[in-house]
Here is the input.
Amino acid sequence: MKQKIEVAMGRRLADLVIKNSQIVNVFTQTLTQGDVAIFNGEIVGIGSYEGVEELDGTGKYLAPGLIDAHMHIESSLVLPSEFGKVSLAHGVTALITDPHEIANVYGVDGLKFMLEDSQKSKADIYTMLPSCVPATQFEQGGAVLHAADLKPFYDNKQVLGLAEMMNYPAVLAGADEEVEKMHDALSANKKVDGHGAGLTAQELNAYIGAGIKTDHECTTIEEAAARLERGMSVLIREGSAAKNALALFPIVQEKNMRHFMFCTDDKHLDEVYEEGSIDHIVRMAIQAGIPPVMAITMGSYNAATCYGLETIGAIAPGYQADFVLLNDLASFDIAQVYKNGELVAEAGVYLPTEETPSYAFPPSVNIQPLTKNDLALTIPSGYQGRMIGVLPNSIVTEPIVEAVETDAQHLFVPSLEKEQLKIAVIERHFASGKIGLGIVKGLGLKRGAIATTIAHDSHHLIVCGTSDEEMLFAVSALEEIGGGMVVVCEGKVLASCHLEIAGLLSAKPWQAAMKDILGINEAVKQLKEVDDFHMMLTVSFLALPVIPTYKMTINGLFDVRSFNYVEVAVPPKSE
Here is the structure.
């Protein structure tokens, strides 16, 4: 402390001084010019300083490092230590993660693994503990996490609270397990995140009153307004499958901007690399007319204050020296990224050279042998079919009931003309033989099939295709590689991505993993006529029964409105 005071008073040289830059002030929403003095990885002064190392910031803008307020690293498909490298190259110096994907496969061991590997990253990777493993009482994944399993983790400084409480019916019913989980978090002075998709105003009252103060599931101005009025913080999301930013930006004003922050939730590595994560949302906000300093504040300081991170998110004495130097403010053009006073990225390239950790995990695909009979979906004569209607760039689905084609045995036959395809979710953790069968409309596949072991949140094996034969071949190909993603057509594997860790994460360096992901994307394009949304991630969310409206699980078609299972076959109306 004495040394910091000496530097701040100008009696001792700083380690590093950024000279003459325009400083983004998140407290006053202004730009100020001056030197920023850094000592021992911390900002100690703003004004006029000299340092052992000096960098001329003339003509550049100095802004705080960005913070992703809610995300699942597993959706990037790479290790936390690898994802941190890509994030830092985009100016994201801190991430608030929810590792519920791997927890649904490996439970406490998966949670410990993510915490351990996160410490190997130069980025600050914080954790919100998975609240719903499984997502609802109707699901069976690879593990279950009870309140007693989570409670010891609150002593870990990386842990900031309890992650998105998806099982809102249990919360609203005052279920013992959910109440205990929230009580433990709040008693430890930790945050509880929300996941209030589709809640009514009255339900919101109870949900918020239970101590849940954030939500990233707003898709409309009306939903965001209802939460703001009740004191919630709204996380504006822009990921790979769910893109809500443009719809929500109009509600952001100077008087309420402190209650907004940015998150990606689920975003594939290739898209983070190519367009960015929080930096991408900041650019979108500026282009939508939000003042640059306000947009940067929502992408940094607001998340820090919401989650009690008192030393990040701003350029001021006592804050970590986590910052970006910008060539231009309006375009948020990043020249350099510093973490704890160390230059870690320049011109979009991560500079330090750390090796990728080596891990060993057991095989993650454990299914019974399948035959064509296992995929037989009966639709009696005169019946219509309930089906999942895909909405591009959304994880919400449209409930559809319409006529379907069947064969002589009354078995559903996919129709390319009507865009009706078969979907199957196959239990893959314990080889129970459970298979949920249904119909999906609007996916856009014109040939072949796709299969993946990423099926939120229980992460069974999900497969969609234009015929039973293609689907069976896709499942076989996925089983052969031991989990991940495959794209097949006419008896050939067009592309595969091996995710050897829990069927969710690649053990490869991020560059090699991204090559596999890009191969999947290119193969998918061969099966579609229009490339208007992220196919693989959209399919992964068709199994999540806490997002409206119809979703497919190993136990059948689930209606989130009634929070129960429904039959795919709909009988004709009685006269």
In short: The first helix runs from residue 2 to 8. The chain has a mean pLDDT of 96. The CA atoms of residues 24 and 40 lie 22 Å apart. The first strand starts at residue 14 and ends at 25.
